[in-house]
Design brief:
Low-confidence stretches: none
Organism: Emericella nidulans (strain FGSC A4 / ATCC 38163 / CBS 112.46 / NRRL 194 / M139) (Aspergillus nidulans)
Largest sheet: none
Order of helices and strands: HHHHHHH
Protein name: 60S ribosomal protein L20, putative (AFU_orthologue AFUA_3G05460)
Helix content: 40-55%
Keywords: Ribonucleoprotein, Ribosomal protein
Distance between the termini: 90 Å
GO molecular function: structural constituent of ribosome
Oligomer: single chain
InterPro entries: Ribosomal_mL58
Number of strands: 0
Structural class: mainly alpha
Length: 200
């Protein structure tokens, strides 16, 4: 009775179960012929028309087709060119494809309509509510009641000294739970903001 033993093509000591757990197993990945054929077929695209030569031109010439990129710092705007510079006439002859500011879309999704409906009596009532009960009548609640922005409420009135003291105590309680890394990060942020004003 004959027994058939299948011999592995790789060395027996190179099989994964013979390696120790600390050694990385390098598995060789081979690409099949079918996947190579599909990739080669998809990459076989025709060149752009701008890279070819015109049919009426027989002599060779330089093709300048740079890739799209950000504006260069070496490109001087027309506004800063001298009056007798030749680049002014060249740019005047070339039609500009850039859009004007009026054609650009708005940065905001919707522009809030400004309202001027509050009377002096309303402002007096806002100050009275904010001073008497600052915990109940916050800037958000006052803005919702009088149909205005919280920024306008902050411009009209300020919180009472008691509310400011409570907010200060809450901030100190939060900061007391900070670790060394967060405290250092906040101090670095404060120093960076101070250097902004000095342009450093």
């Amino acid at each position: 009775m004959a027994t058939f033993v299948s011999v592995s093509r790789r060395p027996i000591m190179g099989l994964p179960f013979f390696l120790s757990p600390c050694e990385p197993v390098s598995l060789e990945l081979r690409r099949n012929q079918s996947s190579y054929r599909r990739t080669k077929q998809r990459l076989r695209v025709k060149p752009d028309a701008s890279f070819g030569f015109p049919s009426d031109q027989t002599q060779s010439h330089i093709i300048y087709n740079p890739p799209s990129s950000s504006p260069s710092v070496y490109h001087t705007p027309t506004k800063f060119l001298p009056a007798n510079d030749a680049r002014r006439t060249l740019r005047a002859e070339t039609p500009a494809n850039t859009s004007t500011v009026e054609e650009l879309p708005s940065v905001f999704k919707f522009e809030a309509e400004k309202k001027y409906h509050l009377t002096p009596s309303d402002i007096t009532e806002i100050r009275k509510l904010r001073l008497n009960d600052p915990m109940t009548w916050s800037r958000g609640k006052l803005a919702k009641r009088f149909d205005c922005s919280p920024l306008f409420i902050a411009q009209v009135c300020q919180a009472s000294p008691q509310k400011k003291e409570i907010q200060k105590q809450v901030l100190q309680a939060v900061q007391s739970r900070w670790g060394a890394k967060r405290r250092m990060a906040r101090e670095d942020r404060k120093l960076r903001k101070e250097t902004w004003g000095r342009d450093e």
